[in-house]
Amino acid sequence: MNREETLALWRQGKGAWNAWAQKILAEKKPLEEKADTEGLAKWEEAALADFSSVEHPSEFNEAADFGNWVFPSHANFDAARFSGDAWFESAKFCGNAWFEEAVFSNDANFQKSTFSGAAMFGETNFRGDARFVEATFLDDAEFGGVKFSGHRLYRKRVVPRGSVLKGCRLPRGIVRWGCGIQVSRVLRGGGFSGRRILWAFVI
Question: Which of 39, 50, 139, 197 could form a disulfide with 31 if both were Cys (CB 3.0 to 4.6 A apart)?
C-alpha cells in the first residue's frame, strides 16, 4: 500500500487492519507454490505498510497503539515521530521492520513482538523507556547509532546466539556490550536467530 492507503486503513483500527492482514497473507501462499515471481512482486507492493519515510516522515501526535497488530510484509516507520507512548507489544512483523531515524519521545514497548524479517533500528532515538522483553528476532537486527535516554531498557536477560555485539553504552550502567563487562539485566526470554545483531548505542 502507499502512504495514503496505509494511514487510511490504520485509522480504521486493529480489527480492520488484522482482517486485511490475514486476507492478504492467505493470498501469498498460492503465489509461492506456483513460484509466481511477478505475482509475488505485486503482492509485496500491496502488502507493504508504508507509515513513514526519511524523505516524508509522519508524526504520531498522540499515543500510538499497535499492540497485537499483524504486518504481513515490510513495515516502514523510518523517521516517524512518536510524541506519545508507542505500543507494539505482541506485534508480528512478517517482513522487514524499518524504524531507522525514528524518534520515540515517550515510552516504546516492543515486548513479546516478533520480527520475522530484518529489524532495522539504526539511528533511532529512544527518549523514554525502551522495552524489548521477550521480543523475538528471527533475522538480522540492526541497532547501530541508537540513542537511549530512558531510565529502563531491558529489565531481564537473554544470551543472543550468533550475534555481533559492538561497543555500546547505556544510561546508568544498566548494561554494557563489547567492553569485556558482564552482561546483566537485558532481555529475558527473547530469541535471536538472525545472522547478526549489531549494537552501537550512544547516550
Answer: 39
SS3 track for the chain: CCHHHHHHHHHCCHHHHHHHHHHHHHHHHHHHHCCCHHHHHHHHHHHCEEEECCCCCCEECCCEECCCCEECCCEEECCCEECCCEECCCCEECCCEECCCCEECCCEECCCCEECCCEECCCCEECCCEECCCCEECCCEEEEEEEECCCCCCCCCCCCCCCCCCCEECHHHCCEECCCCCCCCCCCCCEECCCCEEEEEEC
Return the percentage of the chain with pLDDT > 70, whole number. Answer: 73
Q: Which whole-number Å values give the CA distances from 49 to 59, 60, 192, 200, in the listed order?
A: 15, 15, 24, 27
Cβ contacts of 12 within 8 Å, gap of 6 or more? none
Which residue, among 129, 136, 87, has the nearest Cα to 112 in the 3D structure? 136
pTM, rounded to two decimals = 0.79
